[in-house]
């Protein structure tokens, strides 16, 4: 008989700092102690060895009876749930909503009754088209979904960062989404609208033209989630205690101001840091720089709706703030990252139907379709009807009902009663005519028809209004985005068809795109059911540049430094940024850091090759003389500078950086967006410049 193998044979060893036991095959074993509890299976059985499966002999086959191995692999194999069919890539955070202005005269919704009262909130931001693993800076709409855990149940305001949508009727949603997703025969492109199918569909869907203007604008490439607006999009209703209702549109206004990247930056950020947006939110929250939005209401009545130029039930239209001003009634603060991404961000289930007493729907056909869709999708994604038992989805107020059983039921009724009416003393919950949700008794009648109302027929006027409300630079970005997207479209007829719609929006825009695409024969304007209105006044609130931040708070400066960097200059810059609420990040040839002119060590945040200037809002080029000479040979140093200049960022520098400017080809371009740091006070002046975020007056780049 063979000698039994001692499967516990281990040698004590040091592994770096850690004391471990090393097995016969050289594998590392860490053993439970006072600080580390015993590892168990999901059934609670203690595990002796998590490095080796159970085998017949050291080199023999693995045994079926190894329940630990079997359970571990089984669970791993089932870790994924279906990703969201849209908005798959998202990032969430916790926070609170604080009512700053009580509005009982407008709504009985409990969260709006008492100024100063806070309601817990969870927000998930997302892109729409890309899959879960796609990159953050796709040209796309951003989801802005807010779950408010009010004292009278959960209210989900499932909005976007763009106030209008592609389509007017929910029945077209699968089509618009199919068209933007990877083409079915080839499985690409991922997270891109720049392909034939999307533009084919769009060019045959004139109602999408207003949304197209937004999507081609810088709104679709936000600098971060913190710097974008949110919109409920549809018209909703507020209902007061007497049952009187008013129409409302919801707006989230970022306190940090609006900011976007430029397209060339977006392309490069996606390579340098595909997680740029989620990392930004994570970093800001962990740095205690909590992002904040104001909740604004546009409130209007039937009389306004009657006389407004467009139908308030049409989700391809907005109401300019200049026409119905916004009243701020609260603020949303995000102050806590999730504990577990899957449990919270992935499993959170939003639903437009989650409204509370005091909020109600309108007949917007897009909203009506959404009300059906969200519950349906959660069933598929979360696997059963009990997803409200998952903590992130559960209300934080008392709740009581007779729903029971189903997959993974966690809250099961106790006792005999699971129905009502019943006659038991302990009979459980009863309905409440006073507190309960009641729909607005809107009279509804009409013939059953599949028809689009005529009041939805104007597809170009607001597209034009958006376009003419933009500054010159923003208009150029729209033309360039259209050109980029359409140059990826391989079918010339589709390119021309899009241009035929642009002619109904703005002739200069159409000409510019046609020229940049080199369309030889200008197409006729597309047939329009309604002529474009030329009399709508520009709405400056629709522009980012005209509503930019007044402060540089929450932004980051990337300083390119080498050994010998001037200590006083760096300190002055750090101090000025801190006073503004902004942060300084050091980019160095090696990630270990640099020794400054005073002989002190400065840890770097990024190695130069991994920390290109696209990751920062402004840059400082502060090498020593010797350091600059060495950087002359480093392509990443030249790109760092050339990109910052091309992306119209503000540049602080020391005189020692000048040879580098020469090498990067920007020495002749030194303009008012460059600021030399000679004395410490220059740092303050540089930060003051940065409040404009970009030096748009710089010549170059856009054609
Ligand atoms: Fe959505 N949408 N949607 N949507 N939507 C989903 O629900 C749908 C629309 C929005 O972070 C899905 O849980 C239809 C407009 C956000 O978890 C799904 C229609 C707006 C999110 C769905 C629309 C949105 C979703 C997929 C046309 C802005 C992400 C996964 C009528 C006002 C929520 C899910 C999150 C997600 C359906 C149009 C916003 C399939 C049918 C308009 C922010 O139910």
Describe the secondary structure blueprint for this structure.
Elements: E1 11-15, E2 18-22, E3 28-29, H1 67-77, E4 90-99, E5 118-127, E6 142-150, E7 153-160, H2 173-180, H3 196-203, H4 209-215, E8 230-231, E9 236-239, E10 245-254, H5 263-272, H6 276-286, E11 292-300, H7 302-307, E12 327-337, H8 341-346, E13 359-360, H9 365-382, H10 461-468, H11 472-487, H12 492-505, H13 507-517, E14 556-561, H14 567-580, E15 583-588, E16 594-595, E17 601-602, E18 606-607, E19 618-622, H15 625-631, H16 635-646, E20 651-653, H17 658-663, E21 674-676, H18 681-690
Bound molecules: CIS-heme D hydroxychlorin gamma-spirolactone 17R, 18S.
Summarize the model shown.
The strands form four sheets. Strands 4, 5, 6, 7, 8, 9, 10, 11, 12 and 13 form a ten-stranded antiparallel beta sheet that branches. A six-stranded parallel beta sheet has the order 18-15-14-19-20-21, with helices on both faces. A three-stranded antiparallel beta sheet has the order 1-2-3, with no helix packed on it.
Descriptive notes:
- With 703 residues, the chain is an alpha+beta fold.
- Among the domains are: 1-52, no CATH class; 90-167 and 220-389, Catalase core domain (Catalase HpII,  Chain A, domain 1, Beta Barrel), CATH 2.40.180; 555-690, Class I glutamine amidotransferase (GATase) domain (Rossmann fold, 3-Layer(aba) Sandwich).
- Helix content is 26%, strand content 17%.
- It is built from 18 helices and 21 strands.
- It has helices spanning 67-77, 173-180, 196-203, 209-215, 263-272, 276-286, 302-307, 341-346, 365-382, 461-468, 472-487, 492-505, 507-517, 567-580, 625-631, 635-646, 658-663, 681-690; strands at 11-15, 18-22, 28-29, 90-99, 118-127, 142-150, 153-160, 230-231, 236-239, 245-254, 292-300, 327-337, 359-360, 556-561, 583-588, 594-595, 601-602, 606-607, 618-622, 651-653, 674-676.
- The strands form 4 sheets. Strands 4, 5, 6, 7, 8, 9, 10, 11, 12 and 13 form a 10-stranded antiparallel β-sheet that branches.
- The termini are far apart.
- It binds CIS-heme D hydroxychlorin gamma-spirolactone 17R, 18S.
- CIS-heme D hydroxychlorin gamma-spirolactone 17R, 18S is lined by residues 84-87, 90, 124, 126, 143, 145, 158-160, 165, 170, 173, 233, 315, 348, 350, 366, 369-370, 373-374, 377.
- Residues 84-87, 90, 124, 126, 143, 145, 158-160, 165, 170, 173, 233, 315, 348, 350, 366, 369-370, 373-374, 377 line the site of CIS-heme D hydroxychlorin gamma-spirolactone 17R, 18S.
